[in-house]
Amino acid sequence: MMKDWIFSKGSGIGLITSQYPLYLRDVNSYVEAVVMANFFKRKTNWLNTRMGFFLLIVVLFWVKTYIAYQTEFTLGAKGSVQQFLLFINPVPATLLVFGIALYFRGRLAYWLMLIIDVLESTWIFANVVYYREFSDFLSFGIMKGSSSVGNNLGKSLAQITHLYDFFVYVDIIILIILLVTHVIRIDARPFKRRYAFSLTVLSFALMFAEFGMANADRSGLLTRTFDNNYIVKYLGLNEYAAFNAYQTQKESATRASANASDMKSVLKYLKQNRVSPNVSYYGKEKGKNVFIIHLESFQQFLIDYKVDGKEVTPTLNKFYHNNNTLSFDNFYNQVAQGKTSDAEMMLENSLFGLPQGSAMTTYGTQNTFQAAPAILSQEDGYTTAAFHGDVPSFWNRDNTYKSWGYQYFFSSSYYTEKPGYSVGYGLKDKIFFKQSAKYIEQLPQPFYAKLITLTNHYPYELDKKNTDFPATKTGDKTVDPYVQTAHYLDQSFAEFLTYLKKVGLYKNSVIVAYGDHYGISNNHRPAIAQLLGKDKITSYDLTQFQKVPFMIHANGLKGGIKHTYGGEIDVLPTLLDLLGVKNTDTVQFGQDLLAKNRNQTVAFRDGNFVSPKYMKVGGTVYDTKTGKELELTAAQKKTVAKLQNHVTTELSLSDRVIYGDLLRFYTPKNFKKVDKSSFTYKLKPAMERLADAEKKEKTSVVAQNNGKSTVSDYKTDAPELK
Predict the structure, then answer these.
(1) Total Cβ atoms within 10 A of residue 664
(2) I need a labelling partner for 673 at 20 to 30 A (CA). Which of 172, 206, 214, 276 fits?
(3) Distance CA 710, CA 676 (A)
(4) Is 565 exposed, middle or buried (0-12, 13-18, 19+ CB in 10 A)?
């Protein structure tokens, strides 16, 4: 067979002609393909340089960070300046951190870049998952205290981790494959140190430029704000981590350097802002037992709320509207990352939780406190006890409660545990209340008893045999079962009240029921809009959604729904005034909700606030009554600035008390510093101590019942106990 060869050296193409000729268009197509391949090869040769690979990995990290900003976080970037800063803010820190690898040679530089990418991507991943539930970014305070909440926090985070969250690692996998298959070749040539140093200098220059623009748009960004969203929005996730690390170190240094003179500004502020109690209520409930019922994750909107025509919480609705119940319909949760622990800090101490982490976890063991249990024990001889159906170390309660003066802490070791008894974070509420009765009946009266419910906690899990209420139909799997666990909590509360009435405690007790924090975070906006019957919701709506119920009930108490604005910081002074406990020289940042001349500005932990007239969320001010966004006049700006100054001062001084452990330098009259060593929460010695106290004082329910237990009087329909 005859063959003819046509060879073009320029193109590198060989053409074979025979009895099966190639058509000219086929030749042209082949030539074009090769040319394009050569062109692509020339254009991608830069990837085979160290600088080329560095730029590629930086750009990919930049892109995925920005995608996370836009899809997973609610940062509220408004206007061209904020949008630009949000877009550009990953760059400076990325250049700085990844640029470290350029100081190293050969393969090591490449693998260091990949390792840095893994670490940085994990930081994004962790914040995405955490933010989804807590509407905040991870802090070193939270990570430091993770050992005290790790078991339960792990359960929650596992529920909210989505498969697509692992998208942050996809680029790393691709880059590794490209390196291993030699599609991208490692550049072993030395990289000049001056180039690496120049990149480092450039990254710092960009940081300063970025901060300058940010501070111009939001003055005092790092000195005035209490909101982590602002730091991330303006500066970036890495910068937030650095700033948070600095704050954490500063907090430790603050305690070390604090002295007695630091209390002067605190006491001066409190003296100026102290209010007189309402004479109509002061001391009206003196000497009565006190029950504090933590309604876990319970929000105000649930009161009188119906699903398919059925009341979610019929018992709490009646309790709320009872003539002997003081109910507050403008009462807000003021928690931050500490959630229930923040609520407890405010309830027991009238001190705010911290802007990052949990004060109970970080400072609960070492700090000096003047908390409700110690005050009531010392002033009026109260027996004090806390009840919690989970491990005692959660939120460091086993140590913090000693610092607060709790004589008894009935935690998981005191309760019978069997399969099906627990869900989520601990004992189911019906079982918890039922089993708590055997300890309540032994407490010498008067007593102060705090019971923390758990079933209405995210992720709102409840087995079918305990679920007899319809879920909402928002389509949000996190939100829809919320009303079911809330209904179960309501049923549990009903059974507990029935028991109190039967054994005679109801008529001789003050019963405080309140929602400790939100149950549905702001990250569920479409579902929240449906729950509220709105097409869309604003920041105003979300702030109003942070209301939680607060109710005080006692036989003979002149009740009614009060419209005063307040929050959890105000619980303790309100309760102490009702009980007639002297409260004139204590360090408490709240004010009696019943006082006629009280300040009604409610401070949120992020520095925002709500008052009867104005609500401030970020840089926006709303009319509190109408929700209308306001364009402030000069006079209004002055008023809002005054309110903001009050909030900032209040939060700052409260933080100063905790960070510096300032209460070690100040003791109110007739108050003795709590001796933590005098308490033990171990089952056997604690029960022996309780038995001795019961025999000595003979005021317990059991003693009044001629030594006979009343536990059989507690009736529950819990299927697990049948």
Answers:
(1) 16
(2) 276
(3) 32
(4) buried
Contact, 520 vs 528, CB < 8 A? yes
Q: Quick one: which of 294, 158, 135 has its CA closest to 227?
A: 135
Alpha-carbon distance values, 88 to 60, 82, 318, 687 (Å): 13, 10, 54, 61
CA dist., res. 654 & res. 664, Å (int): 14
CB 541 within 8 A of CB 318: no
- How confident is the model at residue 252, as a pLDDT? 77
Give the separation between CA 572 and CA 372, rounded to whole angstroms.
Answer: 7
Candidates 3.50.50.60, 3.30.300.30, 3.40.50.1370, 3.40.720.10; correct CATH number of 260-716? 3.40.720.10
Helix or strand or coil: residue 24? helix
The Cα 454–Cα 435 span in angstroms is 14
Give the separation between CA 229 and CA 218, rounded to whole angstroms: 13
| Tokens standing for residue 416 | 């019978």
Q: Are strands 550-553 and 383-388 parallel, antiparallel or unpaired?
A: unpaired
449 has which bridge partners?
Answer: 291, 385
The SS3 call for residue 641 is helix
**317 to each of 169, 279, 311, 457, 630, how far by Cα in Å?**
49, 28, 8, 20, 35
Give me the amino acid identity at 694: E
Alpha carbon of residue 18 to chain centroid:
78
- The answer to whether 506 and 290 have CB atoms below 8 angstroms apart is no
Q: Is the CB of residue 165 less than 8 Å from the CB of residue 129?
A: yes
Q: Which two tokens stand for residue 448?
A: 């102060």
- Find out whether the peptide bond into 446 is cis, omega within 30 degrees of 0: yes
Length reported for the chain: 722
- Which SS3 state, helix, strand or coil, does residue 420 take? coil
Helix (H) or strand (E) holding 127: helix 106-134
Q: What is the pLDDT of residues 286-335, one digit of tens each?
A: 999 999 999 999 999 999 999 999 999 999 999 999 999 999 999 999 99
Q: Answer for the pair 186, 110: CB distance below 8 angstroms, yes or no.
A: yes
Residues 6+ apart with CB under 8 A from 579: 283, 285, 286, 287, 288, 290, 376, 380, 510
pTM for the model stands at 0.78
The two three-digit tokens of residue 660, written as one number: 């510096």
Cα dihedral sign, 519-524-530-536: positive
Residues 539 and 306 sit within 8 Å (Cβ to Cβ):
no
Question: What secondary structure letter does DSSP report for 429?
Answer: H
**Rounded distance between C-alpha atoms, residue 393 and residue 390, angstroms:** 9
How far CA 254 is from CA of 202, 660, 697, in Å, comes to 34, 5, 44
Q: Give mean pLDDT, residues 416-437.
A: 95
The residues annotated as belonging to the active site are 340
Separation between Cα atoms, residue 232 and residue 240, nearest integer Å:
6
Cα 471 to the center of its chain, rounded Å: 25
CB 101 within 8 A of CB 77: no
Cα–Cα distance, 499 to 493 (Å, whole number): 10
User: Tens digits of per-residue pLDDT, 390-403?
Assistant: 988 888 898 899 99
Q: Which helix (H) or strand (E) holds 437?
A: helix 429-440
Crossing angle of helices 340-349 and 372-380, rounded to 10°: 30
The β-bridge partners of 513 are 293, 551
422 sits in which H/E element: strand 422-423
Do 438 and 708 contact (CB within 8 A), yes or no? Answer: no
Distances (CA, A) of 636 to 457, 604, 608, 641: 40, 20, 16, 8
Query: How far is the C-alpha of 597 from the C-alpha of 578, rounded, in Å?
Result: 17
| pLDDT over 50 (residue 21) | no
In the chain, where does the domain assigned CATH 3.40.720.10 lie?
Answer: 260-716
Residue for token pair 């005679």: 504
520-572 pLDDT, tens digit each = 998 899 999 999 999 999 999 999 999 999 999 999 999 999 999 999 999 99
